[in-house]
Each structure stands twice: as C-alpha cells, then as structure tokens.
Design a protein that fits this description.
Low-confidence stretches: 3-28, 254-264
Number of strands: 3
Number of helices: 10
Largest sheet: 3 strands, antiparallel
Mean pLDDT: 80
CATH class of the largest domain: Mainly Alpha
CATH architecture of the largest domain: Up-down Bundle
Distance between the termini: 34 Å
Shape: globular
Amino acid sequence: MLKTGSTRAPYAGNPPAIGSASPAPAAMRRTVGDDHPIAVMQTNSLPGLVQRELERMILAGDLPAGAKLREIEVASMLGVSRGPVREAFRALEESGLVRLEKNRGVFVRQIGIEEADQIFELRAVLDEFAGRRAAQNATPAQAAQLRALVDRMEKAVTRRDVDGYHDANLAFHDRIVEIAGNPKLIALYRRLVNELHLHRRAALAQAGILPVSIREHRTIVEHIAERHAAAAGRALYEHAMASRERVHHTRDGAAPARTRKSGR
C-alpha cells in the first residue's frame, strides 16, 4: 500500500511556540532516511508514486502487454483513492506505456513488429546524436560512471540475473543521453525506450535468451571517454540497429545470428 501513517515526535519539555525562529530541538529533527515512507511522501506527489509503481510493474512484466487496467482495482491494490490512479494513467499514456481508449478503458500498450521497427530506426538516430554529444561533454567522472554500469551488467550476466542486467543496461543508455545535455532529447528518448521495452520483453520471454553485449558497451564507453564523437555516435547507432535484428531473430524462433554487431 502507498498510504503512510503519521507519527508525532516526542517533545522534551514544552513544545515550541508556533512561528518560533529558534532551531528545533534534537528530538524534533528529521531522523528518517530518504527511503522512509514519510520522506518519500514529502518529496513525491501521490499520483507520482502511483505512476512509478505502475511503471515498475509494467516494465517488469507483472502487468503484461494488452492487460486492461481497471481504475478501481488498481486503487484497491495500491491502497489509494481513484483520483491519483486516474492522474497516473494520464501520465503513463504520455510516457508511452498505456493507451486510453474512449468507452473501453486503459490498457498496457502492445507494440507490434512494424511499429517496433519504426521505433528502433528513430532510436538509432537519437543514439547516434546522443553518443556524439556525450563524447563532447563527458567528464572523466562521468566516463567512470558508464564503466561502472558496464561492470554491473557483466556481474549480472555472471549471476544469470536477467532483471539486474536489464536495469544496468537501461541505466547505461539513459546516462549517455543525460550526459548529452539536451532535455528535449531525454524526454523523447525515454518514451521510445519504454515502448521498445514492452516489445523486447515479450520477445525475450518467448526465447528465454538474455542479450549480452558487454564488449560493445565497453567500446562505446572508451569512444566517449576519449572524446571520439563520430566513433561513439556510430557505435551507438550500430548497437541499436543490431538490437532490432536480434529481436527479429528471436520472434522468428531462431537464435540470433552471431555477428560482429550484437545488440543491446
């Protein structure tokens, strides 16, 4: 449940007068961590929390593509009223994860092969642009962050941790787009990634294959770290297009071809 109860900090002696400018005593100062429900509620709106939880469930496959999301059922499941759920549905539609159909309801989006191909092509172009800009902008510390994410992917592969690999993989590409420094690019790119994730997860689940492309990710990082803008952009473009090819192989029921370019 997303509801949180309220707690009252004990006072040592008489409570301070309302509007007092004196600092709060130690017993009244915040002692909860950033992940405590109270702290989370203070920094996030309730519709935002509902949106994040539904997004997590959709991307994890707990709410599969094509599933109908009933407002009252979601509200009951999360322990909230229907208003925040309604707002969350609208935000999820904008992010590309659900579709709202008049007089029918809300459904987790299904991405067909033709639409996925169009998204892959657009994403490849955006990846190339992001790679070039990231190579121009990246600091040594940011390059180190990217290397650390590749290390996480590699460790997840060793553990056969599919979810851990995907989380690190998504974070890797998202970080490159952030380093590129174009807010409009970030918003568009994240929507495309959400849509592709719906398509790719279904394909991978059918084949039971974990996509592994550690060497390509390391090559991308080195191009960015060495400020080789054209090479970084090209590597990311090829990476995205090879990913499209691999998904096609998976949906056709065949193992992905072993080529020089293996997709994300």
